[in-house]
Amino acid sequence: MLTTPAAGSKPSEDPADIDRRDPESEIYARATAYRNWGRWGDDDVLGTLNFIDAAKRIEAAGLVREGRVVSLSLAFNTDGPQKGWRRRVNPIHTMTDTGSDAELGNQGFPHGIGGADDYITMPLQSSTQWDGLGHIFDHGKAWNGRRAGTTVTSDGDLVTGIEHAADVIVSRGVLLDVGRFLAPETGELPNGYGVTAADLDACIAAQGTSSTVGRGDIVVVRTGRLARARRDGWDDYAGGEAAGISLTAAGWIHRTEIAAIATDTWGFEVRPNEFDVPSFQPLHQVAIPNMGLTIGEMWDLDELAVACAELGRFDFLLSAPPLPITGAVGSPVNPVAIL
């Protein structure tokens, strides 16, 4: 039987306290404790992105001092990490007009002008991307308690489509390089390591005041998993084992009132998940449909980590708007950190 935590109590933030045989109860306890349904009204479509306001963007703009721009995106090409799980494949780039066509003069244009055109075929979550609010459901419920079946249909996400965030995701970004903090010799956490609330707080303390996290910030967490994939090959980067955020850090995410979070891993949360019985992405189940949290995955944080270490500060202006694809439950993105 599922039980609601006693009034005023919160689920433990110590992974040792997780009942590894009962994911249902562990998820339920956190979903109910950190649920934001109704917080921004019954019609809300943004969830925690509501924490970003004009004042926060003005604060973020003031962090631009060197004019240094770092892209946090992987390449979108056929050499990407996807292996076909649930029909996710790497992007397929096709040319429809080329320089050869122009040289041959077979494009039908006058006075010698020629051109090139192309298109791309890809799952929206094949490389660096955002998980939108319609991406994950909890017992048939979408964000804000809506019915999953009427929120996302074969026509797409009819309510919380990613297009609603197209002019929203610009804010103060904060890098938490937990890979370097917890494993200074390699900068890479081992697969299966669950990053806890205590780890995040300790990393902030070690990095200094520029790492302080608060309302409206977008937190990017580097585990070092991408650096290992870049060195050793993709292997099971997409869907396999990785360090990531522990389910027990859900309370930290909720109380800091961050607007969004992203990692350098395929799944954001620790994999394998923290149970000895079948489970799948329990933190997603708490965070997206219950908190209304936008989650970024497969972000390239390695160059940013170097830049932040060189400058001795870990906050920056972050611009990461999704493509306004109507009804999409996720979007490719080229996030840029401006220092």
Query: Approximately how much helix is present in the residues?
Result: 10-25%
Largest sheet: 9 strands, mixed
Specify the CATH class of the largest domain.
Answer: Alpha Beta
Q: Give the low-pLDDT segments.
A: none
Any idea what the radius of gyration is? 21 Å
Number of helices: 10
Order of helices and strands: HHEEHEEHEEEHEHEHEHEHEHEEE
Query: What does the oligomeric state look like here?
Result: single chain
Shape: globular
Quick rundown:
The chain is of the alpha/beta class. Helices cover 24% and strands 16% of the residues.
List the helices and strands and how they pair.
Elements: H1 23-33, H2 54-61, E1 69-71, E2 92-97, H3 99-104, E3 117-121, E4 129-131, H4 148-151, E5 152-153, E6 156-157, E7 170-176, H5 178-182, E8 194-195, H6 197-207, E9 218-221, H7 225-232, E10 244-245, H8 250-256, E11 260-263, H9 282-291, E12 294-297, H10 302-311, E13 315-319, E14 330-332, E15 336-338
Helix pairs in contact: 1-9
Protein name: Cyclase family protein
Region (Disordered): 1-22
InterPro entries: KFase/CYL, KFase_sf
